[in-house]
Amino acid sequence: MPSPVPVTRLLPSDLYPSLGCGACSSPLNKFGSSLQVPAQRLHGRVASRLWSSVIHWKELRAVVPVGSGGFGSVYRAEYLGETVAIKSVKKSTKNQLASRQSFWAELNAAHLRHKNIVRVIAATTCVPAEYGDECSTGAVLMEFVGNRNLHQVIYGSTEQLGPDRWLRYSADMVHGLRFLHSHNVVHLDLKPANVLLSGDDVCKIADFGCSVKLDPGQEVTSVSPQLSHVGGTYTHRAPELLKGERVSPKADIFSFGITLWQLLTREQPYTGDRQHVLYAVVANNLRPPVQGQAVFESEQGRLCWTLVSRCWSSEPLRRPSAQELLLEVEQLHGRFLS
Predict the structure, then answer these.
(1) N or C: which terminal CB in the chain sees fewer CB atoms within 10 Å?
(2) Active site residue: 14, 133, 189, 273, which one?
(3) Is the per-residue pLDDT at 81 higher than 50?
(4) Residue that terminates a domain, selected from 101, 126, 143
């Protein structure tokens, strides 16, 4: 089921009995039970293993706004000796349930630690006025990765994106997806803008506001119509999601296929009316154009096209798993860079 996530899924079983600090109650939990996690500080730095339900706002230093949008606002700051990002999730006046769902979905991967996933440090529904107050559903404190995302590199720069880079970026994303899927988390909004680039040019998957947590051992899940946050960006949304069918990790593989096409071509996936695109993706198997793209004309390019086409197959079962995809990306690396 999507958020809220039971605490037993968020923390190792050996730590669960020792919980005893700040509670953070899910607004989606009609029974009113609370999510409690320990706030930790280790040698003056934020502990990396666990996230906390308490943000010590007075410990924030050098707070600088770095972005805003329909989701809310993002700030950069210093927190307990570490550079962090603060994401304040806006409370939608039109759909407050969707706002709450989005905030709690952000925490589906909060307990996970991986080099290709943005690390969550803390989250709370109690936000001071200067960071949103009544206009905010909650705030998430995360590691600060950097000032760039993959969308900016693809469309906003003249940097070369040769095989050495797009293969490395692809492998980073697939490593992150494989880890998420192995922990039953489906991101559901993978796209270049949600892939941040660190100072070491490493990709980290961010923005889990559309994510879903599957039950252990469950490969797909039905999603209630009330869970309006599920879906993600329409240009990268798998056709089964557009049809209201079950969610599975293969939806992320579809989104990766569109993202890889963008890395290779540096063009926008679709043009034209949004509703026309949505209809055509489902009814006419519309996909981003391949004919006329020089990158796909060589023998190596045709191998890339084969991989991309498998990722965005209309049938989820025909798409590779993240594990299979990683092997194929590694094979492409051998073909291009050997």
Answers:
(1) C
(2) 189
(3) yes
(4) 143
